[in-house]
């Protein structure tokens, strides 16, 4: 074979390797961007769902509290009534409150707030677990990209085409102390 053909074959092989490395770098960068988009989806779900769940639990807990409070107040009024008219009125109020409680109990044999709180806790835990998994996946894809950007021979092409080492999804140092505490959920 002539020297020209050998040089041409070597150049074709080098070009094929360069194209392959470049395409791999692009694929890794796109995987990283996709992984971060997954984090965004989980964050959006957390920001949308948790306030709705908390509002639902608050509403139901208020309903239960109101129902039980009416019965308790009516009972106290009935026990404190001194005149016949006051006793009649207080007993009617207590009967009405007990009827409301009976309807609630027939519709909901057990009061539901405890279950709602447990469901809220489960939903929050599920969202946070999905978010943590998305962050781990993002860091994994970032590590793969960074390895390709920093290892030979892809580091040569990475520098030429503007591929850089990218940051991991980490908690900033000034936020670490606050995040070590359990989150507060107020009702």
Question: What is the string of SSEs from the N terminus onward?
Answer: HHHHH
Number of strands: 0
Structural class, from secondary structure content? mainly alpha
Number of helices: 5
- Largest sheet, strands/sense/barrel: none
Task: Estimate what percentage of residues fall within beta strands.
Answer: under 5%
Low-confidence region ranges: none
Outline type: rod-shaped
Helical residue percent band: over 70%
What does the average pLDDT come to?
A: 78
Alpha-carbon distance between the termini?
Answer: 83 Å
Radius of gyration: 33 Å
List keywords for this structure.
5 helices, mainly alpha, rod-shaped, about 190 residues
Please, could you describe this protein's structure?
- The chain has helices at 3-80, 84-107, 113-150, 154-160, 173-179.
- The chain is mainly α.
- The chain is built from 5 helices and no strands.
């Amino acid at each position: 074979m002539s020297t020209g053909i050998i040089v041409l074959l070597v150049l074709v092989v080098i070009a094929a390797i360069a194209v392959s490395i470049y395409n791999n770098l692009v694929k890794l960068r796109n995987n990283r961007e996709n992984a971060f988009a997954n984090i965004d989806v989980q964050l959006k779900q957390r920001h949308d769902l948790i306030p709705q769940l908390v509002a639902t639990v608050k509403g139901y807990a208020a309903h239960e509290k109101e129902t039980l409070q009416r019965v308790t107040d009516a009972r106290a009024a009935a026990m404190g009534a001194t005149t016949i008219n006051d006793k009649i009125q207080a007993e009617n109020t207590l009967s009405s409150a007990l009827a409301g409680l009976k309807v609630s109990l027939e519709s909901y044999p057990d009061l539901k707030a405890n279950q709602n709180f447990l469901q809220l806790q489960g939903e929050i835990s599920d969202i946070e677990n999905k978010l943590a998994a998305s962050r781990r996946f993002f860091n994994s894809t970032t590590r793969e990209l960074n390895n390709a950007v920093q290892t030979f021979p892809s580091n040569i092409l990475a520098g030429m085409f503007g591929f850089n080492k990218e940051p991991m999804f980490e908690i900033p140092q000034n936020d670490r102390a606050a995040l070590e505490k359990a989150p507060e959920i107020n009702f």
